[in-house]
């Protein structure tokens, strides 16, 4: 019996020469990126580098040029809804919850893919989300708009998980959160990888992101300036000087 080397397995996501922007202003100038199945891939970089633009282009909410292959199939021409149906989910930086609706209703709305598939497993998925985030279960009847920052982030991630994504894209999940809550969010990322979900994690908290990730990309001014194994990037002098130095000194 022969085994297929990991390097020749089809990656879950393969991006080649991706260009995207707003009107005539190009923000991404030809991005190449790959995410293997069941891995955590992080994209770090300064403000305005184009990290959110990259996730929005992959989700299909922003027009883009280039190749996006998901499970070996081209998806660049697909709509946002078609991408969701294929198992791609995005937790946007602004979290975008329904503030006047209870926690549980926000979660159930996230399961629309299951409903479309006439899949009754959404109740199991709700239980799965409550197991990951017991705090959400405790607060299932509370209005989303009254949650703390950390609880909102948990709800945003939980809602995305309701669609049982294969590829989960997180845009700055640690933004504005206290260190202990950040740790909890990153522990969740680790736990999700263990369940086989592939995660594309955009972060300004480079230290925490490189600790949890398998692979990393440094995005600067719309181009990938460095990429490699996260553990190698974490000891790269350019990454330390630019993205880890301040945190190291703390
Ligand atoms: N809707 C928009 N219209 C026009 N320009 C935009 C829009 N959204 C973002 N930009 C610009 O695109 C560039 C990249 O922004 P983007 O939000 O992708 O960066 P980022 O790396 O995610 O930054 P941050 O870490 O600050 O969130 C910035 O110059 C930004 O001003």
Automatic annotation (TrEMBL):
<dbReference type="InterPro" id="IPR017871">
    <property type="entry name" value="ABC_transporter-like_CS"/>
</dbReference>
<dbReference type="InterPro" id="IPR003439">
    <property type="entry name" value="ABC_transporter-like_ATP-bd"/>
</dbReference>
<feature type="domain" description="ABC transporter">
    <location>
        <begin position="13"/>
        <end position="246"/>
    </location>
</feature>
<dbReference type="InterPro" id="IPR003593">
    <property type="entry name" value="AAA+_ATPase"/>
</dbReference>
<dbReference type="InterPro" id="IPR052156">
    <property type="entry name" value="BCAA_Transport_ATP-bd_LivF"/>
</dbReference>
<comment type="similarity">
    <text>Belongs to the ABC transporter superfamily.</text>
</comment>
<dbReference type="InterPro" id="IPR027417">
    <property type="entry name" value="P-loop_NTPase"/>
</dbReference>
<protein>
    <submittedName>
        <fullName>Branched-chain amino acid transport system ATP-binding protein</fullName>
    </submittedName>
</protein>
<keyword id="KW-0029">Amino-acid transport</keyword>
<keyword id="KW-0472">Membrane</keyword>
<keyword id="KW-0813">Transport</keyword>
<keyword id="KW-0067">ATP-binding</keyword>
<keyword id="KW-1003">Cell membrane</keyword>
<keyword id="KW-0547">Nucleotide-binding</keyword>
<dbReference type="Pfam" id="PF00005">
    <property type="entry name" value="ABC_tran"/>
</dbReference>
<dbReference type="GO" id="GO:0005524">
    <property type="term" value="F:ATP binding"/>
</dbReference>
């Amino acid at each position: 019996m022969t085994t297929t080397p990991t390097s020749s397995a089809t990656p879950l996501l393969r991006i080649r020469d991706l260009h995207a922007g707003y009107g005539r202003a190009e923000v991404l100038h030809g991005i190449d990126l790959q995410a293997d199945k069941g891995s955590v891939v992080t994209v770090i970089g300064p403000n305005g580098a184009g990290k959110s633009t990259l996730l929005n282009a992959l989700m299909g909410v922003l027009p883009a040029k280039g190749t996006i292959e998901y499970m070996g199939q081209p998806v660049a021409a697909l709509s946002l809804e078609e991408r969701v149906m294929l198992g791609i989910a995005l937790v946007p930086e602004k979290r975008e919850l329904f503030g006047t609706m209870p926690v549980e209703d926000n979660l159930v709305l996230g399961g629309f893919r299951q409903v479309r598939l006439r899949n009754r497993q959404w109740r199991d998925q709700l239980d799965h989300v409550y197991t990951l985030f017991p705090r959400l279960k405790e607060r299932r009847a509370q209005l989303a708009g009254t949650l703390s920052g950390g609880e909102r982030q948990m709800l945003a991630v939980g809602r995305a998980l309701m669609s049982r994504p294969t590829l989960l894209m997180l845009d700055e999940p640690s933004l504005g959160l206290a260190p202990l809550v950040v740790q909890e969010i990153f522990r969740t990322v680790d736990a999700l990888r263990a369940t086989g979900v592939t995660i594309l994690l955009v972060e300004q908290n480079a230290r925490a992101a490189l600790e949890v990730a398998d692979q990393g990309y440094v995005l600067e001014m719309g181009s990938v300036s460095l990429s490699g194994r996260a553990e190698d990037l974490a000891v790269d002098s350019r990454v330390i000087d630019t993205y880890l130095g301040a945190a190291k000194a703390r």
